[in-house]
Protein backbone atom coordinates (compact mmCIF):
# COMPACT_ATOMS: atom_id res chain seq x y z
CA UNK A 1 0.00 0.00 0.00
CA UNK A 2 1.31 3.43 -0.92
CA UNK A 3 2.13 5.83 1.88
CA UNK A 4 1.03 9.46 1.91
CA UNK A 5 4.57 10.58 1.12
CA UNK A 6 4.71 8.18 -1.84
CA UNK A 7 1.66 9.67 -3.56
CA UNK A 8 2.11 12.19 -6.37
CA UNK A 9 -0.40 14.40 -8.18
CA UNK A 10 -0.20 15.66 -11.75
CA UNK A 11 -2.36 18.18 -13.54
CA UNK A 12 -2.08 17.13 -17.17
CA UNK A 13 -3.86 19.47 -19.56
CA UNK A 14 -6.33 20.42 -16.81
CA UNK A 15 -7.09 16.86 -15.63
CA UNK A 16 -5.87 15.61 -12.25
CA UNK A 17 -4.02 12.29 -11.98
CA UNK A 18 -2.72 10.67 -8.82
CA UNK A 19 -0.10 7.94 -8.72
CA UNK A 20 2.89 6.87 -6.65
CA UNK A 21 6.62 7.42 -6.82
CA UNK A 22 6.99 3.64 -6.89
CA UNK A 23 4.99 3.43 -10.12
CA UNK A 24 7.00 6.21 -11.75
CA UNK A 25 10.34 4.78 -10.62
CA UNK A 26 10.13 1.94 -13.16
CA UNK A 27 10.37 4.45 -16.04
CA UNK A 28 14.14 4.76 -15.58
CA UNK A 29 16.49 7.67 -15.05
CA UNK A 30 16.39 8.79 -18.70
CA UNK A 31 12.62 9.35 -18.73
CA UNK A 32 10.69 12.54 -18.01
CA UNK A 33 9.69 11.20 -14.59
CA UNK A 34 13.18 9.94 -13.84
CA UNK A 35 14.43 13.49 -14.37
CA UNK A 36 11.90 14.74 -11.82
CA UNK A 37 13.52 12.56 -9.15
CA UNK A 38 17.05 13.59 -10.14
CA UNK A 39 18.41 16.26 -7.81
CA UNK A 40 20.75 17.52 -10.54
CA UNK A 41 17.97 17.99 -13.09
CA UNK A 42 16.28 21.29 -13.86
CA UNK A 43 12.96 19.42 -13.84
CA UNK A 44 11.97 19.12 -10.18
CA UNK A 45 8.78 17.93 -8.52
CA UNK A 46 6.57 20.36 -6.63
CA UNK A 47 6.59 19.13 -3.01
CA UNK A 48 3.73 21.45 -2.05
CA UNK A 49 1.12 20.22 -4.50
CA UNK A 50 0.43 18.98 -7.99
CA UNK A 51 2.81 19.24 -10.94
CA UNK A 52 1.35 20.75 -14.10
CA UNK A 53 2.20 19.16 -17.47
CA UNK A 54 0.82 20.87 -20.56
CA UNK A 55 0.22 17.70 -22.58
CA UNK A 56 -2.63 15.43 -23.66
CA UNK A 57 -4.52 14.02 -20.63
CA UNK A 58 -6.00 11.15 -22.68
CA UNK A 59 -2.56 9.90 -23.70
CA UNK A 60 -1.21 10.41 -20.19
CA UNK A 61 -3.99 8.18 -18.86
CA UNK A 62 -3.00 5.38 -21.28
CA UNK A 63 0.69 5.66 -20.42
CA UNK A 64 0.05 5.77 -16.68
CA UNK A 65 -2.09 2.63 -16.97
CA UNK A 66 0.80 0.99 -18.85
CA UNK A 67 3.16 1.79 -15.98
CA UNK A 68 0.70 0.42 -13.44
CA UNK A 69 -0.20 -2.82 -15.22
CA UNK A 70 2.49 -3.48 -17.82
CA UNK A 71 -0.26 -3.73 -20.45
CA UNK A 72 -1.01 -1.32 -23.28
CA UNK A 73 -4.67 -0.59 -23.96
CA UNK A 74 -5.36 2.17 -26.48
CA UNK A 75 -8.98 3.44 -26.44
CA UNK A 76 -10.68 4.25 -29.72
CA UNK A 77 -10.59 7.99 -28.96
CA UNK A 78 -6.76 8.04 -28.76
CA UNK A 79 -4.95 8.05 -32.14
CA UNK A 80 -1.90 5.77 -32.06
CA UNK A 81 0.36 8.38 -33.65
CA UNK A 82 -0.58 10.87 -30.95
CA UNK A 83 0.10 8.30 -28.24
CA UNK A 84 3.53 7.46 -29.69
CA UNK A 85 4.39 11.15 -29.88
CA UNK A 86 3.50 11.57 -26.22
CA UNK A 87 5.44 8.43 -25.30
CA UNK A 88 8.50 9.95 -26.97
CA UNK A 89 8.03 13.13 -24.92
CA UNK A 90 7.92 11.18 -21.65
CA UNK A 91 10.74 8.83 -22.67
CA UNK A 92 8.48 5.77 -22.53
CA UNK A 93 8.86 4.38 -26.05
CA UNK A 94 10.74 1.31 -24.83
CA UNK A 95 7.85 0.43 -22.51
CA UNK A 96 5.31 1.01 -25.29
CA UNK A 97 7.22 -1.14 -27.79
CA UNK A 98 7.71 -3.96 -25.28
CA UNK A 99 4.01 -3.97 -24.38
CA UNK A 100 2.85 -3.84 -27.99
CA UNK A 101 5.27 -6.29 -29.62
CA UNK A 102 7.06 -8.04 -26.77
CA UNK A 103 10.79 -8.15 -26.17
CA UNK A 104 13.02 -8.18 -29.23
CA UNK A 105 13.93 -11.68 -30.39
CA UNK A 106 16.26 -11.91 -33.38
CA UNK A 107 15.20 -15.51 -33.99
CA UNK A 108 11.55 -14.56 -34.56
CA UNK A 109 11.86 -11.65 -36.97
CA UNK A 110 9.15 -11.23 -39.57
CA UNK A 111 8.12 -8.43 -41.95
CA UNK A 112 5.77 -5.94 -40.33
CA UNK A 113 5.39 -3.38 -43.11
CA UNK A 114 6.86 -2.45 -46.47
CA UNK A 115 7.24 0.94 -48.11
CA UNK A 116 7.20 1.87 -51.77
CA UNK A 117 8.54 4.87 -53.60
CA UNK A 118 10.83 6.16 -56.31
CA UNK A 119 14.47 7.16 -56.07
CA UNK A 120 17.24 7.65 -58.63
CA UNK A 121 20.03 5.09 -58.71
CA UNK A 122 20.72 1.95 -56.75
CA UNK A 123 20.59 1.70 -52.99
CA UNK A 124 23.95 2.51 -51.40
CA UNK A 125 23.26 2.47 -47.66
CA UNK A 126 20.59 1.71 -45.07
CA UNK A 127 21.04 2.75 -41.46
CA UNK A 128 18.90 2.32 -38.34
CA UNK A 129 18.13 5.47 -36.36
CA UNK A 130 18.39 5.82 -32.56
CA UNK A 131 14.58 5.93 -32.18
CA UNK A 132 13.93 2.75 -34.17
CA UNK A 133 13.45 4.32 -37.60
CA UNK A 134 15.80 4.11 -40.55
CA UNK A 135 17.10 5.90 -43.61
CA UNK A 136 17.79 4.53 -47.09
CA UNK A 137 20.19 6.15 -49.56
CA UNK A 138 19.41 5.75 -53.27
CA UNK A 139 21.59 7.57 -55.76
CA UNK A 140 21.34 11.25 -54.83
CA UNK A 141 18.38 10.87 -52.44
CA UNK A 142 18.00 9.80 -48.83
CA UNK A 143 14.58 8.59 -47.67
CA UNK A 144 14.01 8.84 -43.92
CA UNK A 145 11.41 6.96 -41.87
CA UNK A 146 10.38 6.98 -38.23
CA UNK A 147 9.95 3.76 -36.27
CA UNK A 148 6.42 3.35 -37.67
CA UNK A 149 7.83 3.68 -41.23
CA UNK A 150 6.11 7.02 -41.70
CA UNK A 151 8.29 9.02 -44.09
CA UNK A 152 9.83 12.40 -43.34
CA UNK A 153 10.61 14.80 -46.20
CA UNK A 154 13.34 13.13 -48.29
CA UNK A 155 16.72 14.77 -48.78
CA UNK A 156 17.55 15.37 -52.45
CA UNK A 157 21.17 16.29 -53.20
CA UNK A 158 20.68 17.12 -56.90
CA UNK A 159 22.64 14.37 -58.65
CA UNK A 160 25.37 14.20 -56.02
CA UNK A 161 25.57 10.47 -55.37
CA UNK A 162 25.39 9.50 -51.71
CA UNK A 163 28.21 7.23 -50.56
CA UNK A 164 27.27 6.75 -46.90
CA UNK A 165 24.92 7.99 -44.18
CA UNK A 166 25.10 7.87 -40.40
CA UNK A 167 23.11 8.98 -37.36
CA UNK A 168 24.66 11.09 -34.63
CA UNK A 169 22.11 10.35 -31.90
CA UNK A 170 24.63 10.87 -29.11
CA UNK A 171 25.02 14.50 -30.22
CA UNK A 172 21.69 15.32 -31.87
CA UNK A 173 18.69 12.98 -31.92
CA UNK A 174 17.66 14.32 -35.35
CA UNK A 175 21.18 14.63 -36.77
CA UNK A 176 21.97 12.71 -39.96
CA UNK A 177 25.40 12.91 -41.60
CA UNK A 178 25.57 12.32 -45.36
CA UNK A 179 28.75 11.84 -47.40
CA UNK A 180 28.70 12.34 -51.17
CA UNK A 181 30.93 11.83 -54.18
CA UNK A 182 30.94 15.57 -54.94
CA UNK A 183 31.13 18.72 -52.81
CA UNK A 184 27.90 20.10 -51.36
CA UNK A 185 28.46 23.42 -53.12
CA UNK A 186 31.39 25.08 -54.84
CA UNK A 187 34.65 24.06 -53.15
CA UNK A 188 32.73 23.00 -50.07
CA UNK A 189 32.87 19.84 -48.01
CA UNK A 190 31.32 16.67 -49.37
CA UNK A 191 29.89 15.81 -45.94
CA UNK A 192 26.92 17.57 -44.39
CA UNK A 193 24.94 17.36 -41.16
CA UNK A 194 21.21 17.44 -41.85
CA UNK A 195 18.10 17.62 -39.70
CA UNK A 196 16.47 14.27 -40.43
CA UNK A 197 12.90 15.39 -39.71
CA UNK A 198 12.98 18.56 -41.83
CA UNK A 199 15.70 17.76 -44.36
CA UNK A 200 17.55 21.00 -43.63
CA UNK A 201 21.33 21.29 -43.97
CA UNK A 202 22.83 22.43 -40.65
CA UNK A 203 26.46 22.75 -41.69
CA UNK A 204 29.17 21.25 -43.88
CA UNK A 205 32.37 19.51 -42.88
CA UNK A 206 35.19 21.16 -44.80
CA UNK A 207 38.64 19.70 -45.43
CA UNK A 208 41.29 22.36 -44.87
CA UNK A 209 44.94 22.08 -45.89
CA UNK A 210 47.39 24.89 -45.09
CA UNK A 211 44.49 27.22 -44.41
CA UNK A 212 42.76 26.51 -47.74
CA UNK A 213 39.41 24.72 -48.09
CA UNK A 214 39.89 21.75 -50.40
CA UNK A 215 37.36 20.02 -52.64
CA UNK A 216 37.04 16.30 -51.96
CA UNK A 217 34.89 13.20 -52.33
CA UNK A 218 33.79 11.57 -49.06
CA UNK A 219 33.27 7.87 -48.51
CA UNK A 220 32.62 5.63 -45.52
CA UNK A 221 31.70 7.28 -42.22
CA UNK A 222 32.54 6.26 -38.67
CA UNK A 223 31.64 7.85 -35.34
CA UNK A 224 33.17 7.93 -31.88
CA UNK A 225 31.39 8.53 -28.58
CA UNK A 226 33.67 11.49 -27.94
CA UNK A 227 31.66 13.32 -30.64
CA UNK A 228 34.27 12.81 -33.35
CA UNK A 229 33.50 11.75 -36.91
CA UNK A 230 35.88 10.02 -39.31
CA UNK A 231 35.58 9.72 -43.08
CA UNK A 232 37.80 8.47 -45.86
CA UNK A 233 38.36 11.22 -48.43
CA UNK A 234 39.80 11.63 -51.91
CA UNK A 235 40.91 14.97 -53.34
CA UNK A 236 40.84 16.17 -56.95
CA UNK A 237 44.46 15.09 -57.44
CA UNK A 238 43.83 11.64 -55.94
CA UNK A 239 45.13 12.61 -52.51
CA UNK A 240 43.71 9.96 -50.19
CA UNK A 241 43.28 10.33 -46.47
CA UNK A 242 41.07 10.12 -43.41
CA UNK A 243 39.50 13.27 -42.03
CA UNK A 244 38.48 13.84 -38.42
CA UNK A 245 35.80 16.40 -37.46
CA UNK A 246 33.97 17.59 -34.36
CA UNK A 247 30.28 16.71 -34.69
CA UNK A 248 29.16 19.61 -32.50
CA UNK A 249 30.87 22.34 -34.50
CA UNK A 250 31.81 20.78 -37.84
CA UNK A 251 35.41 21.89 -37.27
CA UNK A 252 38.17 19.74 -38.74
CA UNK A 253 40.35 18.27 -36.01
CA UNK A 254 42.91 16.37 -38.07
CA UNK A 255 43.63 14.81 -41.44
CA UNK A 256 45.75 11.72 -42.02
CA UNK A 257 47.16 11.42 -45.52
CA UNK A 258 47.59 7.97 -47.02
CA UNK A 259 50.66 7.76 -49.25
CA UNK A 260 50.58 5.22 -52.05
CA UNK A 261 54.06 3.75 -52.30
CA UNK A 262 55.19 1.85 -55.35
CA UNK A 263 56.42 -1.52 -54.12
CA UNK A 264 58.69 -3.75 -56.14
CA UNK A 265 59.32 -7.35 -55.23
CA UNK A 266 62.01 -9.51 -56.83
CA UNK A 267 61.27 -13.12 -57.65
CA UNK A 268 64.37 -14.85 -59.01
CA UNK A 269 65.57 -11.65 -60.61
CA UNK A 270 62.16 -10.71 -62.10
CA UNK A 271 60.88 -7.34 -60.89
CA UNK A 272 57.13 -7.20 -60.22
Automatic annotation (TrEMBL):
<dbReference type="InterPro" id="IPR000210">
    <property type="entry name" value="BTB/POZ_dom"/>
</dbReference>
<dbReference type="GO" id="GO:0051260">
    <property type="term" value="P:protein homooligomerization"/>
</dbReference>
<dbReference type="InterPro" id="IPR036322">
    <property type="entry name" value="WD40_repeat_dom_sf"/>
</dbReference>
<comment type="pathway">
    <text>Protein modification; protein ubiquitination.</text>
</comment>
<feature type="domain" description="BTB">
    <location>
        <begin position="6"/>
        <end position="76"/>
    </location>
</feature>
<dbReference type="Pfam" id="PF02214">
    <property type="entry name" value="BTB_2"/>
</dbReference>
<dbReference type="InterPro" id="IPR011333">
    <property type="entry name" value="SKP1/BTB/POZ_sf"/>
</dbReference>
<dbReference type="InterPro" id="IPR003131">
    <property type="entry name" value="T1-type_BTB"/>
</dbReference>
<protein>
    <submittedName>
        <fullName>Chromatin remodeling &amp; transcription regulator BTB-POZ family</fullName>
    </submittedName>
</protein>
<dbReference type="InterPro" id="IPR057441">
    <property type="entry name" value="Beta_prop_At2g24240"/>
</dbReference>
<dbReference type="Pfam" id="PF25279">
    <property type="entry name" value="Beta_prop_At2g24240"/>
</dbReference>
